[in-house]
Amino acid sequence: MKFVIQRVTHASVTVDSKTVGKIEKGFMVLIGVSSEDTKETADKMIKKMLGLRIFEDENGKTNLSLDDVNGELLLISQFTLYADCKKGNRPSFTNAGAPDMANEMYEYIISECEKSGKKVEKGIFGADMKVELLNDGPFTIVLDSRDL
Q: What is the pLDDT of residue 7?
């Protein structure tokens, strides 16, 4: 599982010119699911993401978490995080989870994040989405379950 976490001042996602998710200060998270991922994997990733202290405190140090700043989450599925570009110029996506399984994991992640009490917005799995954000910093963290 891979999470690309961007600290944002605001972010939104639209499908067919309709806004389906919108947040203010918080994390815009691109979520990639592999065929090997489990709910236990997701739980570890969620715990790490929610605990990240990457917002600035009064001294300008990255020392505050989502909880500390009343941050929001925009969660977007993105199978292309599992692109394999080793051969040729056309990426292969065979390492990405099958759509039904990946959607189930994506919905699980959303559900677990909602249990944290934070505002959680989302994209639409499998849709052609347009994402807009203002990356604050810029500050981007890549979490890979293989590293946890």
A: 98
What's the number of domains the chain is made of? 1
CA triple 72-98-45, angle to 5 deg: 35
Find the domain containing 46 and state its range.
Answer: 2-147
Q: Is 6 an active-site residue?
A: no
Q: What is the dihedral of CA 67, 23, 62, 146, to 10 degrees?
A: 90
105: domain CATH number? 3.50.80.10
14 is catalytic: no
Low-confidence stretches of the chain (pLDDT beneath 50): none
Asked if the peptide bond before residue 91 counts as cis, ω within 30 degrees of 0, the response is no
Catalytic residue among 3, 14, 55, 78: 78
**From 79, 94, 125, 140, active-site residue:** 79
pLDDT given at position 147: 94
Active site residue 79: yes
Choosing from 19, 38, 80, 93, which is the catalytic residue? 80
Report, in this order, helix, strand and coil percent for the chain, each rounded to 5. 25, 40, 35
